[in-house]
Design brief:
It is built from three helices and 20 strands. By secondary structure, the protein is mostly beta strands. The chain has a six-stranded antiparallel β-sheet, with no helix packed on it. It has a four-stranded antiparallel β-sheet with strand order 1-13-4-7, with no helix packed on it. It has a four-stranded antiparallel β-sheet with strand order 17-16-19-20. A hairpin with a 2-residue loop joins β16 and β17. The longest helix has 23 residues. The radius of gyration is 29 Å and the shape is elongated. The two termini are about 35 Å apart.
């Protein structure tokens, strides 16, 4: 026996909702993979950077790798492809020259001409301990930005002093140098160093919730963007109250309206399906964080194709309706879900 039209509509509605949820899960991953910028650190540190001038006792410079040969590059390119956070950076060094008394290193991002530059705090390079040195940090970096280093060198003034963190090789790449380091805004480099590699490597993590913390290793609770320690030990699902008019002119206004109140802070997802003669079209809706105890009004916009299908059905004398779905998660990941909330057109 073939299913009735209402039963078929329920089946199609379920399929459409499941497909929409699958799309949301695919397009918004819960954990972000880490990436890498800069050097692989495989090449030997055989070039000194930011040398102190003869007779002087200190020097200050900035460096950023403009180009780097593929076999020496840690990533596909030297810029980030989304809002991210540097969570760790490393340099490879040789033993410093005897007249070098201190080398300070500070991670820096290089942006466009109108973007402010951000820096980490200075770290001391161990002068008599050649090898790879790793430093933890939390440095936001935006789409298209490059990383670099501020370098300060101090010496006795009685011989060569420099930072032994470079590699020289024909065709290895080009290194931009600023003398002195740039201030608040991006400035053109003072010069370019050909055939030079900055032995700097950085771990980069996406920042999907835009809280300035790396999603993979620094955000301890993916359900709460304000929290960076583990999620709260809560196993009680949130309680939501919903208010909406059961008849709304959603074809004229191109949206439906709902009001929501929660007993605790939750992430809220509202979406639904447009129901027309046994067919269901998914309508992607609204996502937001809401605080407890306050009524919030939300809109779910009608996509063009579902709206046109519904308008055609109305012109033929039919009666489409919108089936709303509400999903909320609290700061511990407990889930509240309400579906089968029909909103019909006003009666003529």
């Amino acid at each position: 026996m073939s299913p009735s039209v209402p039963a078929l509509g329920r089946q199609l509605r379920t399929v459409a909702a499941a497909a929409l949820l699958l799309l949301m899960l695919i397009s918004a991953p819960s954990t972000a993979a880490a990436g890498a910028l800069g050097s692989t650190l495989h090449d030997p540190p055989d070039a000194e950077l930011c040398p102190v001038a003869p007779g002087a006792k200190e020097a200050a410079c900035s460096f950023s790798q403009f180009s780097l040969a593929g076999e020496s590059s840690a990533g596909e390119n030297l810029t980030v492809n989304g809002e991210s956070v540097v969570t760790r950076w490393s340099v490879r060094s040789a033993e410093a020259a005897p007249a070098t008394t201190a080398v300070g290193l500070r991670l820096r991002s290089f942006a466009g001409k109108s973007a402010a530059l951000t820096t980490s705090r200075y770290r001391s390079l161990p002068l008599d301990d050649p090898g790879v040195h790793v430093f933890a940090t939390r440095l936001p970096i935006s789409y298209g930005q490059r990383l670099g280093l501020d370098v300060s060198v101090e010496g006795t003034g009685e011989g060569p002093a420099a930072a032994p963190i470079g590699h020289a090789e024909s065709g290895i790449g080009r290194l931009d140098e600023w003398l002195p380091p740039p201030l608040l805004e991006q400035e053109p480099p003072t010069r370019q160093l050909a055939d030079t590699e900055l032995l700097l490597h950085a771990r980069v993590e996406y920042d999907y919730d835009n809280d300035g913390w790396g999603d993979q290793s620094q955000d301890g609770c993916k359900w709460d963007p304000r929290r960076h320690s583990p999620c709260l030990p809560d196993e009680t699902e949130p309680r939501l109250q919903l208010r909406f008019a059961k008849r709304q002119p959603f074809l004229a206004k191109r949206r439906v309206f709902l009001r929501v109140r929660s007993n605790e802070r939750v992430s809220l997802l509202l979406y639904g399906t447009m129901e027309t003669r046994g067919a269901a079209s998914a309508v992607i809706g609204t996502f937001a964080w809401i605080d407890p105890g306050v009524w919030r009004r939300f809109s779910i916009y009608m996509d063009r194709e579902p709206r046109k299908t519904a308008e055609k059905l109305v012109a033929e004398g039919g009666h489409p309706w919108f089936d709303a779905i509400v999903i909320a998660r609290d700061r511990s990941g407990n889930k509240f879900m309400r579906e089968n909330l029909p909103i019909r057109l006003p009666e003529r």
